[in-house]
Amino acid sequence: MNQRQHFHIEHAGHSITVDVSGGRHREVELLVDGREVGHQKDRNADRLTLSGQLPEVPPQPFAVRVDGRQHHRSHPPTCTLLVAGDEFSIPDRTPAERPDHRAR
Predict the structure, then answer these.
(1) Region labeled Disordered — which residues (predicted)?
(2) Which residues 6+ apart lie within 8 Å of 55 measured at CB?
(3) Tens-binned pLDDT, residue by residue, of the chain (104 aa)
(4) Best label site of 64, 88, 92, 98, fewest CB within 10 Å?
(5) For residues 38 and 30, is the Cβ–Cβ distance under 8 A?
């Protein structure tokens, strides 16, 4: 089964999005202002870290850390923004699963 989670935060006037998907193989995609700036695939890591830059002058480096294994429903992944020595929790914005009302 392929599970997906969507994390999103606004920081310094920029949109930072982290999409986590997977089952046996977890895949993490990092977007800044809607553009992909990082992508990583891993099999069994409890923690993945991706780096990027905010399009500032000069560019501001940052990282996002995804903790927890995707396939453990009792402990879903968490996501943290790491920038300039500070840590910010990135809220999970995964849409709630809705039942398919068409099926009867």
Answers:
(1) 1-21, 39-59
(2) 14, 32, 33
(3) 457 889 999 999 999 999 998 766 788 999 999 999 999 988 677 888 999 999 999 999 999 999 886 555 567 789 999 999 999 999 999 887 655 555 54
(4) 98
(5) yes
The letter for the amino acid at 70 is Q
Classify domain 3-89 at the CATH topology level. Lipocalin (2.40.128)
Contacts of 13 (CB under 8 A, 6+ apart): none
21, 2 Cβ separation under 8 angstroms: yes
Tell me phi and psi for residue 66, to 5 degrees. -110, 120
Is the link from the previous residue into 99 a cis peptide, with omega within 30 of 0?
no
Q: Rounded distance, CA 68 to CA 79, Å? A: 9
Domain spans in the chain, listed from the N-terminal domain onward: 3-89
Specify which residues 14 forms β-bridges with. 11
